[in-house]
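Case study.
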Amino acid sequence: MLQCHARGCNTNNFPLELSEVEIQVLETDYNPQFLRNMIPKLDWNALVVTAKKVGITAVPDVLPETMNEDIDENFLRNLHRILLETHVQQGKMTCPNCKHVYSIRDGIPNMLLNDEA
Amino acid sequence: MLPTPNLDHLSSEDYEKVYNPAAVSLLLEDTFLFLDTLEDEVRFIKDDIKPCICLEIGSGTGCISTFLGQILGNGSTHINPHATATTIATGHRNSVLLDAITTDLTSGLLPRLNHAVDVICCNPPYVVTPHEDVHSKNILERSWAGGINGREVIDQILPLVNNLLSKNGVFYLLVINENMPDEICEKMRKEHQFQSEVVKFRLAGREKQYILKFKRCIDN
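After joint prediction, the assembly is written out as follows.
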């Protein structure tokens, strides 16, 4: 959901590209209703591209029809895994346009441009 | 009665990194005012808002986000810009999963989260100080220095809230008398079509503290 905000960098600046990542998986309660509410807020393409970058291919390239009640349980479980249980602990996020690198340390992305913190 | 987030994992050194030690007791007092408010508002937040994404701007110890996480359960994502590791640590100590981002106010979140955030909490730097202090090199000072009328940072946050908040979303803001709460409400109504109310008021020493609650006007 993070986007490059370097001055003058206005196009092709999302999604930030992950590299050199260290992933931690922490199990948490599965809440299908939350996932349903969350789906409209996601940029599906960005999610798929980012997931693939870290080696996760469990989500379909095209978002399935999610409005009906009998939404695929398996699909929601996979989404839960990615959105809520997969944490990037260390890594880098590179803007595809201006190549500015934002770092992630101890699970916290640093979006400050001068990396002062 | 809901449990107050456990902060016993924070050492006095942690506090010194997050806050000016002289101001700790006062700052904790306004945090508690915020927790009281959220406790009163829990039914409204759960039943009317049904939030997906909650955002705390300036999360400090992470106490407010953690509390929100506790009352909402694991059904929401909490994002904390300008956070330090203490935010995550507080969440962890209390078995609440938080996402934190180090940034300036909300840079990097917009426009991705445009009209996507359901609950925004902010305990801003509201202390009346000279203008220069807002841009102080000392990051601790910046955590409470509000500049002229204590409003300089608050006034930066208000338009961001308009951009971030979802259609049914709610925004809670802690202010003191010197920040001119009436004028803040008027500004939000005129410039961004938000309705407002004072949901909490407390005298803390000589300081009059308010929690303001904002929602978009219904016909908006």
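Observations recorded in class. Chain B touches chain A through 29 residues (CB under 8 Å). Residues 20-24 of chain B have pLDDT under 50 and may be disordered. We will return to this complex in the next lecture.
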